Amino acid sequence: MLMYPQYSWQQTWQEHFASVQTEAELLSVLAQAARQLGFEYCAVGMRLPLPLSNPKIVMLNNYTPAWRERYEAARYFSVDPTIAHALLSTQPVLWSDQVFASAANLWEDARAHGLQIGWAQPVHDIKGTASLLTLARSNDAMSSLEARDKAPRLAWLARAVHETLTNVLASKPDSPSAITLTDREINVLRWAGDGKTAAETADILGIAERTVTFHIDNALRRLGAANKTAGVLKAAMLRLI
Q1: How many other C-beta atoms can be found within 10 angstroms of the C-beta atom of residue 154?
Q2: pLDDT attached to residue 178
């Protein structure tokens, strides 16, 4: 008897997320879902796998301007234990004194801004992208019964938000997801990834060495990579090879 209401809830919100085309629309739908689940505030942060030296971070939330400014000014992002947890785990986190023991100033500041109760649900995907959905409210402690009852919906919502934001970002012209390679470019990069030289790859594929070099150069240009090593790594991380 409990499965049908859960299915109906997911189906309803899946239809809403399916119509999302922008980050602003995603935040609007998420905020509505959060309110239905009993939370005033919502936030999603996504860490993309590239560039390796400084991974891109995307953050959306409906927190008050005062809290957003305070969080950024105090650089709480660098000490937030829920973010550190999300990079290593997919287990949910219920805010508590214990969770924020290593960031007491952040915890005290958050509560002073009306953020008393929170649930954080990480999501990881096969492309190396990690996200963290956080729902919060100013009062009414979450009982164990509420946590147990809402856990499946919160986990589903986190996954839906992750997939929707991934699709929104991928639709942008400058997105790495827009990169495509030809079959020949994929083949030469795969052999390069196995440590083969252009000459060795040419022998394996039965083509001229200059042809191998031509396809590698084209692949690097498409990938925006400075050299073969960077190109192979980026193509692998994007699941192109």
Answers
A1: 20
A2: 75
Q: How far apart are CA 20 and CA 2, in angstroms?
A: 28
What is the maximum span of the chain, computed from C-alpha positions, in angstroms? 71
Q: Which amino acid is at 160?
A: A
Q: What percent of the chain has pLDDT over 90?
A: 81
Q: Give the separation between CA 214 and CA 182, rounded to whole angstroms.
A: 12
Q: Tokens 């959905």 sit at which residue?
A: 133
Where does the chain have alpha helices with state H? Answer: 3-18, 23-36, 65-73, 81-86, 104-112, 144-170, 183-193, 198-205, 209-223, 228-237
Dist CA 48 CA 31 (whole Å): 23
Residue 156 gets the label, from left (phi > 0), alpha (psi -120 to 50) or beta, of: alpha
- The pTM score is 0.81
Instruction: Count the Cβ atoms, other than its own, within 10 Å of residue 52.
Output: 10
Residue type (1 letter), 107: W
Give the Å distances, CA to CA, from 9 to 21, 22, 160, 185, 213. 21, 23, 13, 45, 54
